[in-house]
Design brief:
Structural class: alpha+beta
Helix content: 10-25%
Number of helices: 14
Pfam family, one: Transglut_N
CATH superfamily of the largest domain: Transglutaminase-like
GO molecular function, one term: protein-glutamine gamma-glutamyltransferase activity
CATH topology of the largest domain: Coagulation Factor XIII, Chain A, domain 2
Radius of gyration: 29 Å
Largest sheet: 9 strands, mixed
Cofactor: Ca(2+)
Enzyme class: transferase
Strand order of the largest sheet: 1-3-7-6-5-4-8-9-2
Number of strands: 38
Keywords: Acyltransferase, Calcium, Metal-binding, Transferase
Length: about 700
């Protein structure tokens, strides 16, 4: 071999088609492990049987660590090692089919070739290629037998994420964009910036054949804690110095910004942002991944499978416990086998990149086998107790007197947490409920047995817990019941109308003193501002039910509302001669609607006009209006349009042009923000034709 750099034809188009990597827009070969690819090169004068190939990755390639392979030409493909099979030769070029084992380390490889006959010649470089996980290959840990699921969970760049609360589920589109521009390189540099890599690069790279390992490392790298990772979390309700978490529309902008800033954490994220970025990175690397939303999600900080909430006598939710119940929380599921736990724990695995609790000293979470969560096997790796609590914790509501430090149990509930667990349907823009994959039916004997089993495994059954309520406290029965009902659809800009229903459950008269409060909160139910308070005294005849309408005018809440549009309404009912009763409801207000119209047919490489229409629903002017538009294969990058201020009830129409560059169904995502609203989102499916 004369030259040290041979001229190589990587057959990019054919290899990409065979390896499901055509969506990457790269000049470099990107292939999947456990599957053959073709490469042709010239400049060799040697007979082909004298050729030896070297594939190597990482800073210190070694055969022992499986980060280097040398292999000659053989007549057949070997299952568990690298191999090369001759395809054809001509006077000065050779075509070879190269196969990697289905458990090869993923990442960027250098490929070189050496002639064995001369012995001393140094290897000639053929160039580099990137090797990814292969869900289409039955030997791979991430093998997914269902073709439609591979399409959705690896190749689909558009997603739908669910939010709101259990009474009112809403959804928004997200552009994962895992095949765009430089995203693959950014994903690879995330791996090279992890704490594990910094500590011991060669060992870290040698573990990159294992989706469990990579999932865990990346769950740490997506948040900024510990390692200057991608996104900085902020749940304060104030987002100075960064972007409001509600206004992002896709992961591409976040990952690009992280790289552009010299890898400084991007401000700001909340749970769905962490989950969406992790989805992008894992799909990009070839691990099937989806986002999951859990409604009434427990954050059990002290690991006792119990969440304690405290209220003072006026009904104000006191922010004094590390535990909390979020209106919703978004995490990930990735699909791979668990050789460490056994086949019954393979399949969907929970990963969570939101920094909530440390695991192994850093903010990372998972992979926790979803089957282990359902069966209460909380002693299995990784972080099963935390995830189990997110969907199963019991809730204790306490009345707390700050003056004396005395707390009395109001009531406890075992069915509140973990409801309507949701993900996007395969191949459709619909919600699918997966609650039954996380737990047995709420209230069933089996569900309580699993909960006891989990408590036992965590050693909670046998040890005395001085903070726990007594059985006597748990068994006490209230004299009245209450609930809040929402009178009409709740929209930002409109007055908030609720009705408090109180019912006397006893056959004697009850006198009730009701203290009511309404607070604006972030979606984690962390109180931000008090909006309203009131108190009433009520006499209920035996078995009587009464209703009390409540109106909170927009003018009272508009200054206090955070961009989560969430208000927590609480009534603490003090019953004379009985135990207090807590009535509460999380209210999520809908943003005003925004409408997209595509004016005409969308054709490849032809301009098409799009109109976005928004009407200001409130009686004050809105300013700093910005429209943000993105959509894979419809426009490159992100379009930002500044819109002049809109007076009360004024309608704005904004037009822009698209030049689509691929055929097929594409999603256009729009986000409108101004000084009064952050994330008014919508998306539209645009069918692009030839």
């Amino acid at each position: 071999i004369a030259a040290t750099q041979l001229s190589t034809n990587w057959h990019l188009k054919e290899n990409a088609r065979d390896h499901h990597t055509s969506k990457f827009s790269s000049k470099e070969l990107i292939v999947r492990r456990g599957q053959a690819f073709i490469v042709t090169f010239n400049g060799t004068e040697q007979p082909e049987q004298n050729l030896t190939f070297i594939a190597e990755t990482g800073p210190k390639p070694s055969k022992l660590a499986k980060t280097q392979a040398t292999f000659g030409i053989s007549s057949t493909v070997s299952k568990d090692s690298w191999s090369a099979v001759l395809q054809s030769t001509s006077s000065n070029s050779v075509s070879i089919s190269i196969s990697s084992p289905c458990n090869a380390v993923i990442g960027r490889y250098k490929l070189s070739v050496q002639s064995t006959s001369t012995g001393s010649s140094s290897p000639a470089s053929l160039g580099t290629f990137v090797l990814l996980f292969n869900p289409w290959s039955s030997g791979d840990d991430v093998f997914m037998p269902n073709e439609a699921e591979c399409e959705e969970y690896v190749l689909e760049e558009f997603g739908i994420i669910f939010g709101g609360n259990k009474n009112h589920i809403n959804s928004f589109g997200w552009n994962f964009g895992q095949f765009q521009g430089d995203i693959l390189n950014i994903c690879l540099s995330m791996l090279d910036r992890s704490l594990n890599y910094r500590k011991d690069p060669a060992t870290d790279v040698s573990h990159r054949n294992d989706p469990k390992y990579l999932g865990r490392v990346l769950s740490a790298m997506v948040n900024a804690n510990d390692d200057e990772g991608v996104v900085l979390g902020n749940w304060s309700g104030s987002y100075e110095g960064g972007k409001n978490p509600s206004s992002w529309t896709g992961s591409g902008e976040i990952l690009q910004n992280w790289k552009k800033s010299g890898f400084k954490p991007v401000r700001y994220g909340q749970c769905w942002v962490f989950a969406a970025v992790l989805t992008t990175v894992l799909r990009c690397l070839g691990i099937p991944t989806r986002t999951i939303t859990n409604f009434s999600s427990a954050h059990d900080a002290d690991g006792n499978l119990r969440v304690d909430e405290f209220y003072d006598a006026s009904g104000t939710h006191l922010d004094m416990a590390a535990d909390s119940i979020w209106n919703f929380h978004v995490w990930n599921e990735s699909w791979f086998s668990r050789s460490d736990l056994g086949p019954s724990y393979s399949g969907w695995q929970v990963l969570d990149a939101t920094p909530q609790e440390e695991s192994g000293g850093i903010y990372q979470c998972g992979p926790a086998s979803r089957n282990a969560i359902k069966e209460g096997d909380v002693d299995l790796d990784y972080d099963c107790p935390f995830v189990f609590a997110e969907v199963n914790a019991d809730c204790m509501y306490w009345n707390y007197d700050p003056a004396t430090g005395k707390k009395t149990l109001i009531f406890s509930q075992s069915t509140t947490v973990g409801q309507f667990i949701s993900t996007k349907a395969v191949g459709r823009d619909d919600r699918v409920d997966v609650t039954n994959d996380y737990k047995y039916e709420e209230g069933s004997a089996k569900e309580r047995d699993i909960f006891k089993k989990a408590r036992k495994k965590l050693g909670l059954e046998d040890k005395f817990d001085p903070t726990a309520p007594t059985q006597q406290e748990i068994d006490q029965k209230p004299d009245i019941s209450g609930k809040f009902k929402v009178a009409d659809p709740l929209q930002v800009g409109k007055d908030l109308n609720l009705v408090l229903f109180l019912a006397n459950l006893q056959s004697d008269v009850k006198i009730v003193h009701v203290n009511m409060t309404a607070w604006s909160t972030v979606y984690t139910r962390r109180p931000v501002h008090e909006i309203w308070k009131d108190s009433i005294s009520v006499t209920l005849s035996p078995k009587e039910e009464k209703q009390f309408p409540i109106t909170i005018p927009y003018s009272d809440y508009q200054q206090q509302l955070t961009t989560d549009n969430t208000i927590q309404v609480t009534a603490l009912c003090h019953v004379e001669g009985g135990i207090p009763v807590l009535v509460q409801r999380a209210v999520t207000l809908d943003n005003p609607a925004i409408d997209i119209q595509v004016l005409g047919e969308a054709k490849v490489n032809k301009e098409v006009d799009v109109e976005v229409i928004f009407t200001n629903p409130i009686d004050t002017e809105v300013m700093d209006c910005v429209l943000q538009v993105e959509g894979n294969d419809l426009l490159r990058g992100i379009l930002e349009i500044n819109i002049p201020p809109l007076k009360a009830s004024e309608k704005s129409s904004t037009k822009f042009k698209l030049i689509p560059f691929e055929t097929g169904p594409k999603h256009l995502l729009v986000n409108f923000s101004c000084n009064k609203f952050a994330g008014i989102k919508t998306f539209k499916m645009v069918n692009v034709i030839d």
